[in-house]
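Lab meeting notes turned into a lecture example. A postdoc, R.K., suggested we walk through two folding results consecutively so the class can see how the record format repeats. The first protein's sequence and structure tokens come next.
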Amino acid sequence: MTTTTRSEDRNRDEGDNRQEDSDGGYEIDTDPGRLDIGLVHHWLSTDAFWALGRSRDTVERSVGGSLNFGVYGPGGGQVAYARVVTDRATFAWLCDVYVAPAHRGRGLGARLATAVRDHLAPYELKRTMLATLDAHELYAKVGFVPVPDPERLMILGPTP
């Protein structure tokens, strides 16, 4: 898989950071201009249980305020997405990880999570978090562990 990182954080992402792999020509890119927002909205609002019904406006605003990762297939079309909400200094939240059904089972979710982890590493963040209902094993492969002290965490807003 080729990994290209291009983002608004030009100080760190300037240049061509590609990693070649023999996995069918997938590419991960952080260039928000390359994202197919309509497709991301469709995926999240119709097929992602955590975002069902999410409006196009909400998706656009979330993309605008996040570090975004698109995965593109050999033909150039987008096949997966993830975003990270971060201050690039102390904290990050990995969310909205989605792989199109036709591309599942190829390890793209783990590769995407690995690319996120590696991209964030130079920031030396104190904590990177995520929430998952059913992908604990996938994220464990990349180094995520259960919260050691969940009694310290709280949430503001609607809960399921």
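The second example is placed directly after the first for contrast:
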Amino acid sequence: MSSGTFSQIYIQLVFVVKGRENLLKKTFREEVFKYMSGIVKAKGQKSIIINGVEDHVHLFIGLKPSMRLSDLVRDIKNNTTNFINEKRFVVGKFAWQEGYSAFSYSQSQIDNVYKYILNQETHHEKKSFKEEYLELLKRFEIDYQEEYLFEFYGDE
């Protein structure tokens, strides 16, 4: 990175528990999200807010161009999988589904995205994950094929 490079890229990441199982229980969820935040910071990136519900998580980060987003997501998913399994937070093996989604935002949108992620539990009392996810894809004009979306058991 040259001395004349300055940037701040704001990204919302969304990824899902394998099989959309409701494994991220309230009893340990906060500990997992704090652990995720620590991974983001250890990689030299900015953790703005991390929150979610039983079957998926939203991370809002400030990304520096020195790191590939796919590498950061891989490290977060691998490390949290190991953390959850080592702590025996779930019966059996915990895993994340393959893939993730990333949505970029401008500086002026930070407050709204922060509040949206902060209020995930309330938000999902009114709207399913599938509804939320399809709205994000539509809002960001992302072309997708149904067969490549996250598994949406029980949301039909």
